Amino acid sequence: MDMGDEVKVFGSWGSPFSRRVELALLLKGVPYEYIEEDIFVFENKSPLLLQYNPVHKKVPVLLHNGKPIAESLVILEYIEETWKANPILPEDPYDKAMARFWAKFLDDKCLPAIRKAAFSPENEREEAAEEVRDCLKTLESALNGKRFFGGDAIGMVDIAANFVGFWLRIIQEVTGEELLSVEKLPELFKWTEEFVSCSVVKKCLPPKDKVLDVVKARVAPK
Amino acid sequence: MAGEEEVKLLGFWVSPFVLRVEWALKIKGVKYEYIEEDIFNKSSLLQQLNPLYKKVPVLVHHGKVIAESFVILEYIDETWKHNPLLPQDPHQRAMARFWAIFAEQQVFEGAWNALCSQGEAKQRALQGTIDSMEKIEGQLQGKEQFLGGESIGYLDIILGWISYYLEVWEEVGSMKIMDPVTFPATAAWMKRLLQHPVIKGGWPPREKMVVYFHHRSKALGSSPHGWLRV
């Protein structure tokens, strides 16, 4: 390992995206400095964040030896290519393609559906919830009997699915909509338990009550 | 090199996503069988190979199926290593991937939304797309040849659609996005792309495109969504 490595993460305590980056660094044993950004009030964003991510002005940003990278999935690929311990992607190009496909599915389909189910006005929530359940059913098929999406150990898809593993249950609790039931999606449900029980993941999850407060504030009342 | 690789590509004549994959395969000199799909009358083959999205492009290599153009491009790059599409350096790779996502979400989707919508929504989408084009222009300034450097690369392939499709969409949508005076570096890059041997002459017939997008944009009306989503 390059002893001159300087790694910083600009993140937000409640953001699943910045937690993804931290999880990958922790898994690979890469020391980093964490800088908390206030993402709820635009004016509070630090000049550094605006300098390092001028295009989107968002977290997470990874700064490695002064070079910034934005977009959590792009950062995960960078981390994988830069620090070789505990790989988060398979070696085989086809298996790698599958992992990328599922990570993309999570961000392109699952996440928007979950957002809609959580934050839409009450009368739109049932339809949105149905869409989430379909997404999750599809996602479950990627597990295919494995303990994690990555196999025996956590991989990129597990990391990308962190909002399903942790944030989703909190959203369910607040909205009262059943999104991930143990009866209908037993494999995926089991995965969420395995995921949050990992010691590395535990280090990387925000406090549940704080997230609960944020979600409650954003969800339209019934 | 091993014998005949068995590569099939399921495509649709007017899909810019399929074109990306074809360009990549041609750059790598990979022989493939092209199978035309009527996406409005999907074959059982497509439904079997891509049950999740039922969309093209779908690449089949030795029986293994890959969907999503971004994912397919990376697979192609890793499987056939000559004429690399992505840079070697991890930071530069990250930059290419970052800008590819930006180009897709801001320029492609922006232009598509502007094409399919009306009134205020159209104006908003149009302005957003133009703002995003400015950022692309910034990336192209000082680039002698292509975004990938001396030869075309991943980002050129992702963004390449604009050198032909954009003008068609502008006509169909009665809008102006690409002004060569405002975006000279982009205009010059588009010209170079159009001359590239792998890209030249491979576009769908323009008149057919105009008719197709005219109907398509009307059909999708003011709530454009997913058909051309990556």
UniProtKB/TrEMBL annotation, chain A:
The keyword Transferase applies. Residues 5-87 form the GST N-terminal domain. It catalyses: RX + glutathione = an S-substituted glutathione + a halide anion + H(+). Belongs to the GST superfamily. Tau family. InterPro entries: Glutathione-S-Trfase_C-like (IPR010987), Glutathione-S-Trfase_C_sf (IPR036282), Glutathione_S-Trfase (IPR040079), Glutathione_S-Trfase_N (IPR004045), GST_C (IPR004046), GST_C_Tau (IPR045074), Omega/Tau-like (IPR045073), Thioredoxin-like_sf (IPR036249). Keywords: Detoxification, Transferase. It is found in: Cytoplasm, Cytosol. Pfam families: GST_C (PF00043), GST_N (PF02798). This is glutathione transferase. It comes from Hibiscus sabdariffa. It comes from the Eukaryota. It is an enzyme of class 2 (transferase). Signal peptide: none annotated. Its EC number is 2.5.1.18. The keyword Transferase applies. Residues 92-214 form the GST C-terminal domain.
TrEMBL record, chain B:
The keyword Cytoplasm applies. The keyword S-adenosyl-L-methionine does not apply. Residues 89-213 form the GST C-terminal domain. It is found in: Cytoplasm, Cytosol. It holds the Pfam family GST_N. Residues 5-84 form the GST N-terminal domain. Its main location: cytoplasm. Its EC number is 2.5.1.18. It is an enzyme of class 2 (transferase). Keywords: Cytoplasm, Detoxification, Transferase. Gene3D superfamilies: 1.20.1050.10, Glutaredoxin (3.40.30.10). It catalyses: RX + glutathione = an S-substituted glutathione + a halide anion + H(+). Belongs to the GST superfamily. Tau family. Is involved in the conjugation of reduced glutathione to a wide number of exogenous and endogenous hydrophobic electrophiles. This is Glutathione S-transferase.
